[in-house]
UniProtKB/TrEMBL annotation:
This is Lipid-transfer protein DIR1. It comes from Raphanus sativus. The keyword Signal applies. One of its GO terms (molecular function) is fatty acid binding. Residues 1-23 form the signal peptide. The keyword Signal applies. One of its GO terms (biological process) is systemic acquired resistance.
Length: 114
């Protein structure tokens, strides 16, 4: 519960501060931090490898599965870090959602998608 509240507070702060939109970024016209805000249903699953992945999380992650560069940028974003996301756990979510066409083996910073 506390981590969800922390996540919402971080999201609110980011909305207040605003972000710069760059059309040439990993996620097109949106920033990874903006896209990370859409992954609120994934917070628990991104912190605990044994947690069930909610359907809402899988739906959001599926949007990124065709763009692994954006997925990596989102999962490694400042917003994700501030909400307690553990990258090595978060990167297992596409597999835990049972996506057959996930980007297996894609290098994501120091991590590799399983």
């Amino acid at each position: 519960m506390a981590s969800s509240m922390k996540f919402l507070c971080v999201l609110g702060l980011i909305l207040l501060v605003g972000t710069v939109v760059d059309g040439a970024g990993e996620c097109g016209r949106s920033t990874p931090d903006n896209e990370a805000m859409k992954l609120a249903p994934c917070v628990g699953a991104a912190q605990d490898a044994n947690a069930a992945v909610p359907g809402g999380c899988c739906s959001q992650i599926k949007r990124f599965s065709q763009n692994p560069k954006c997925l990596c940028a989102v999962l490694l974003s400042d917003t994700a870090k501030a909400s307690g996301v553990q990258p090595e756990v978060a990167l297992t979510i596409p597999k835990r959602c049972n996506f057959a066409n996930r980007p297996i083996g894609y290098k994501c910073g120091a991590y590799t998608l399983p």
